[in-house]
Amino acid sequence: MSRSDRGLRRLAAGTLLVAFQGTTPPGWVLRELERGLGGVTLFGFNVDGHEPPAALTAALREAGGEPVVSLDEEGGDVTRLAYHEGSPYPGNAALGAVDDAELTRQVYRAIGAELAACGINLDMAPDADVNSEADNPVIGTRAFGDEPGLVARHTVAAVEGLQAAGVAACVKHFPGHGATRVDSHLAIPVVDVTPEVLRERELVPFRAAIEAGTKSIMTAHVAVPALTGGTPATLSPAALTGLLRGELGYDGVVISDALDMHAITKSVGLAGGAVRSLAAGADLLCLGPIPGHDEVREVIDAIVAAVGEGTLPPARLEEAAARVEALRAWFGAPGRTLPERNGVGLRAARRAVRLAGEPAPLSQPLVVEVDTPPTIAVGDVPWGLGRWLPEAEVLRLAPGSADVPALLAKAADRSLVVVVRDAHRHPDSRALVSALVAARPDATVVEMGLPVWRPDTAAYLATYGAARANAQAAAELLAGT
């Protein structure tokens, strides 16, 4: 391979964020970092549940100088550091319910401090989507709310909190995933709104984040017919170059959402999506948790081939490399101090809890946790009240298979607490809750998703998220502590 070919391959590799299984980086990742790989994205399977991944990230830096070491640490339901036990921080919906921007700044500064202590330098957060569609299957409690101004001010606070701790924010999902009813992990969602609605709703938080100096922005695999036609924004020059770079004036790093999602792989393929996203204006490509070394090499080869064929200008790769290099220089800037972790997550979760009605005092409580399948973005993170109510008997069951008479018999002469998550999205959950509270109007219903639906009777407690902090705050209230 000639020197120029090696240089081109290095530029291509420098656009990629790869993933790997396990709590130690495999040899191929270390070798690719030595050859210019842009960095990695960590997931829950990279954290062993007992020790933070500091040794893992140190090995990555030793191989790659100052690679981008990223993950999705949103607090709330989407956590990677606390994947095995649930996050100690409430999610965005809870913070939006409190609506104290300074509290949001403190929470994200604490998150940033934990990430920095682990050697992680880029957080794929905050979620800046305006969750205007209550039935959104992938955003929900990840959003600060459904009002653009509220989402904007908390997005700014989150960006400032993370970056004060020396961790780059990555505001997502541009140009907005909040008005969708399809999960882009599975298909291409469509945001069919006018340019005026897009600017007055979806773009408001992104514009504010740009003014606040966010170091990166993540693309969405959503089609906006008025802007991108049927093409996902991740692959659209109109979205990334025309709107984001041109109209909004953003000159930081643009990162693609995971290219192994079906919105990309089932339309143009992983390698094709990588080339098209770079051509559209992305600087770093998150490949997601599925591709291994063979697929990574295929993506690099496809990028190199596209340059040779003239479909991807070399200047586009050089521009991306310059932006990533500037980001890496910012990672190494001196003079930052990390705050102490001081329980701000639990304090925030306590402030977010909303109660309607008067829960009866707990007496030999039976807690019925109505199971709902997690989204792909969240994964199999523990949730529920059980660990925080040690005196309770906890039943976790699928709503469609629940035996209501048996549950009511078991709950006789005992307190009944029914825990749900996004009941508004699950008819079988609503049916089970309705049947239980019809017979037991003294029951308490705890909603750990968005509080869109509630039964006509029974005390009702909303946590705005299912993180560990949300659960503890709810249990404290129920127990009267």
UniProtKB/TrEMBL annotation:
Primary enzyme class: hydrolase
PROSITE patterns given in the database record: GLYCOSYL_HYDROL_F3 (PS00775)
Protein's UniProt keywords contain Electron transport: no
Record bears the keyword Hydrolase: yes
Entry-linked Pfam families: Glyco_hydro_3
Upper lineage: Bacteria, Bacillati, Actinomycetota, Actinomycetes, Streptosporangiales
Record keywords: Glycosidase, Hydrolase
Family listed: Belongs to the glycosyl hydrolase 3 family.
Recorded GO MF terms: hydrolase activity, acting on glycosyl bonds
Enzyme Commission no: 3.2.1.-
Domain annotation Glycoside hydrolase family 3 N-terminal: ranges: 35-325
Alphabetized InterPro entries for the sequence: Glyco_hydro_3_AS, Glyco_hydro_3_N, NagZ_Beta-hexosaminidase
Stated name of the protein: Glycoside hydrolase family 3 protein
